[in-house]
Write a structure and sequence with these properties.
- The protein has about 110 residues and is mainly alpha-helical.
- The chain has one domain.
- It is built from 6 helices and 2 strands.
- The protein has a two-stranded antiparallel ribbon.
- The longest helix has 18 residues.
- The relative contact order is 0.23.
Length: about 110
């Protein structure tokens, strides 16, 4: 299976996404949702609703993982969005911006 292109704490690898997510996290959440085939407006709105926001952002993270072939679980996605929500949002946005290619650990 693939891995995330950048680490969870690699927020400053793309300062534009980092700044937008810090000031308007619902925008990043909505744009990422749209890239995996969901409604930008709906998931952007849901992302600001406390526990519902954690659930909705974790659901989108799961779709990002599925699309990129990255291992993980819904439970861990919820934990990440509960404790490191902005970092998780930026990681997902950077991964989807990178053309949807996951890095693999295959060795020759």
């Amino acid at each position: 299976m693939g891995e995330w292109q950048t680490g969870l704490c690699g927020c400053f690898e793309n300062c534009t996404i980092c700044i937008i997510t810090y000031f308007v996290p619902c925008l990043t959440a909505g744009q990422t949702a749209e890239k995996v085939g969901e409604s930008c407006c709906l998931y952007g709105f849901l992302s600001i609703l406390g526990p519902i926001g954690i659930w909705s952002r974790a659901k989108i993270r799961g779709k990002v993982r599925e699309q990129l072939g990255i291992d993980g679980s819904f439970g861990m996605d919820c934990v990440l969005h509960w404790f490191c929500g902005l970092c998780a949002l930026t990681q997902e946005a950077r991964a989807m911006e990178g053309g949807g290619q996951a890095q693999s650990m295959a060795r020759e």
